[in-house]
Amino acid sequence: MLLPLSAAMKTAVYDLDKTLVRRATFTPFLIFASRRLAPWRITFLPLWVLMMAGYRIGLYNRTSLKQFGMRLMLGNPGHEILQLTGRAFASAHVERSGWLEGIVAMVEADRAEGRRIAIATAAFEFYATAFADMIGIEHVIATRWDGRLIPGGNCYGAEKYRRVAEWLGHDPAQSDLRFVSDSFADLPLLAAAKDAVFVTRNNAKRAKAAAQGWQVVDGEL
């Protein structure tokens, strides 16, 4: 049973893609998993690229896009197979792309301070958990997959805020919360956090984040 966290308890919540790990994970996961589980499906990769373009021009939302991608590139493997594949993918992705070491060091500092730490990500839970395990983070708030659909929708934007609030047991704005992300899509949590940290090397994004009063860091350092 998940017990509410005290509002006075220090917590730290981290995004995953381009925050803890250097590169995005979903398309690389689809490619990795299709090659491993159903190699013939890699021929659908050009269609997946077209679907991403459709999303960018507003033809459908992220939840629909990700559901389509899973079914297109993987079919319907069982949950246990997805977990095993997710672990293999996480290891390969870190080996290929690496962690943002400065952000991992921040996790270690939060742990030493006694903060309760979670990853909150739009990545699928079955592989986000593998990344979390690699750096000793127990709590993962991520997109769920039931084999065909995404229950509750993509863990992104307002939905990520709702899911973090559910984990905390109260409004994030009432917490001693550090939230770390590279994405302005996480504005709801960044705006609510007592200590908002924005990760970027882009000067325009740096200026925009600084104008919000957020701490801006380069995860490479």
Automatic annotation (TrEMBL):
| A Pfam entry, by short name | HAD
Q: Which UniProt keywords apply?
A: Membrane, Transmembrane, Transmembrane helix
Official protein name in the record? Haloacid dehalogenase
Q: Return the InterPro entries for the record.
A: HAD-like_sf, HAD_sf
TM ranges are 38-58
Species, as recorded: Aurantiacibacter marinus
Lineage: superkingdom? Bacteria
Per the UniProt entry, the signal peptide is: none
